[in-house]
C-alpha cells in the first residue's frame, strides 16, 4: 500500500520512538503551557487500581467488633497487620505506606466510593474516570477537564491516553517498549527529515523530551532511549520510577496517571502468598519508588497522589476463598503536601444489618469529595468549575480538606 508522504513519516516516527507514544490530541510540548508559578510547580498523580481492590484486606477494620466474624478466613493475615489507630490497620505487605503514614505523608479514606452502584467493572470504571454519576453520560475525563481549565499538562504512563485524562488539556503518553532503541544517527536523520514539517518536528521534540528532558545527551550513540530496558524490567514499579522522572522536570507535566490491574480477586484471596498479597506488595513498592524519585528531585513536598479503585468487594468470603464485586472500599492520599497520619472514615460498621444490600461495605464518603478537595486546594481549580465542569452536577458534594495548611 502506498501511503501519503506525511503518513509514512508519522509511521516511521512511531516505530523509531515507540517507547514514547504520542497522544493524537496533544498539540504542545511539555515546554509550553502555563507560566511558572507556585501552582504550576505542584504535581498530582492519580493511580487507578483496575479490578476493584478489597479495601477491607488492604485496610482491615480490626477494631470493628464484627470484623472477625464477618471476614472469616479473610481476617487472617500472614503477618501482623500494621496498626494505624485503634480501629484500622494496613495489610502487612503495605509496610512502606505504613512508614509514610507515620511520617504524616499518608491519609487513608475508608468506606469511600462512587454514586454508581451496579457492580459492573466497565460501568464503574467509566464513572470513575469520567467524573459523572452514571456510565457514558460524559465522553471526557474529570482530570482532562481540570487540566484544560488550568491550561496545564498531563502524562499517561500507558500506550494510550485513558479516559480520565481526555479533554481539552495537553496530554502525552509514555510506555515501556520492546522495540530496539534508536541510535543518535537515526534521530539526527529524523531531525533533518522533519525540519520543514512543523507537526512532525514538534512531535519528535516531544518524544525526545519525554526521554531526556530539555536536551539530547551528546553521547547518545552509546545508548538508546531506555524504553526496551524499562520494558524488560516491566511492572508498576518501573512506571512509578519513570513518572517521578517526568514529574521532576521543571517544565514537566503537572499531572500523571498510572494504572495497575489484577485486583479482581474472586478466588484464593486468603492465601498470604497469593495474588492479592503480591499485588499489594507491588503497589507498596511502586508508591515508595515514586516517593523516593520525587524526594530526590525536591518535588515530593509539592506532590499529591490519589490511589483509587472502581468499587470495593463483598464483606464476606465467597465459596472460592475470594470476594465478589461490592460497593464501599478504601482510597489512599499521599504526598509531601498531604496532612496525613490519619484515617478519614464515617464508619458504617460490618454487621449484616449495616451493610449495603446486606452484603457490601456501605459508601459513606463520596470519592468525588476526595478528588474535589485535592483539585481545589492543590491545583487551585475554582469551585465553580469543579461543580459544573470537572464533576458536573456535584455542587452538593463538598471537598474534603486533605492538605497541609
Query: Structural class of the helices, strands and pairings?
Result: alpha/beta
Helix content: 25-40%
Number of helices: 13
- Name of the CATH first level: Alpha Beta
Low-pLDDT stretches: 1-36, 212-234
The CATH architecture name reads 3-Layer(aba) Sandwich
As for the CATH topology, it is: Alkaline Phosphatase, subunit A
Q: Give the amount of beta strand, in percent.
A: 5-15%
Outline of the structure:
The chain has 405 residues and is α/β, with parallel strands linked by helices.
General description of the model:
The chain is an alpha/beta fold. The chain has a single domain, classed as Alkaline Phosphatase, subunit A. The strands form two sheets. Strands 1, 4, 5, 6, 7, 8, 9, 10 and 11 form a nine-stranded mixed β-sheet that branches. A two-stranded antiparallel sheet has the order 2-3. A hairpin with a 5-residue loop joins strand 2 and strand 3. It is globular. The N and C termini lie far apart (61 Å).
Topology readout:
Elements: H1 5-16, E1 43-49, H2 55-58, H3 67-71, E2 82-83, E3 89-90, H4 95-102, E4 106-113, H5 121-130, H6 142-150, E5 153-156, E6 170-173, H7 184-193, H8 198-212, H9 227-233, H10 235-248, E7 255-260, H11 275-296, E8 303-309, E9 329-334, E10 342-344, E11 365-366, H12 367-377, H13 383-390
Parallel strand pairs: 1-7, 1-8, 4-10, 4-11, 5-6, 5-7
Antiparallel strand pairs: 2-3, 4-9, 8-9
Any descriptors?
disordered N terminus; Alkaline Phosphatase, subunit A; alpha/beta; globular; 405 residues; nine-stranded mixed sheet; two-stranded antiparallel sheet
